[in-house]
Design brief:
2 domains, two-stranded antiparallel ribbon, alpha+beta, 19 strands, elongated
Length: 279
Amino acid sequence: MLKISTFTLALFIPFIAHTSSALNTAATGMSAQEEHVNTISNNIANVNTTGYKRQRVEIEDLLYQTRREAGARSGADTQYAVGIQTGSGARVSAIKKQHSQGDPQITNNPFDLMVNGQGFFGVVMPNNQVRFTRDGAFSVDRNGVLVTRSGSPVFPTFTFPPSTKSVNIGEDGSVEAYINSEVEPQNMGQIPIFTFINPAGLKSMGGNLYRTTLSSGEPIQNIAGQNNAGIVMQGALESSNVSIMNEMTNLIRAQRAYEMNSKVMGIADQMLQTVNNIR
């Protein structure tokens, strides 16, 4: 049996500590890449979701253990130009919505609307709170009210007469209804466009809806086409801004990074096993 001295054993203690640190560091990397893959999978799943905005994972490094400060004395009249710092891994710091414009999809449905530019439509929820959406796939219910797919009224509430034969919605959001036996259209009101100082701070609620947060700021109600608000396009819907090619490229990168972190864990484990087998 191989015997080692107390001095030699003491040399292994820092080695074991660094190897254990490598295991933990690789584990944080695997966790971050797992979150990255989950986000990419959600983007791909929503590639055909109307008005969906892709999410981007932002990763930051963790705390560092400083073993030697840069600028510390290396001699009587010299200093180290570079220090020694050991990192402890990475973590996901944010998952950010990319509010870039999606391509228009022409439908020629008079109740399909698209915001061409910045801003959101308002949706009135059952509790009378207003939520916000880029999904303009609207329709009219049995009472003539302009509603979303789920039946929530568009803000403000528009009720069309039963004798309405056609509807015209202008770029400024003005709504006109052409009534049977009437020559001139009936003015129904105007659809506003809501903008935010920080749209990335909005909270996704599912169902293509967002709500305000302290980060997003309060909604700013605008006339479409004014104050940097987008115009309203009738007979069109906004496609998702997800690019399958980019998502597949990011997926391969995340997968390779996950595999490399897994390989690091395997190597660190083998190194610890080697030390453990020394008797």
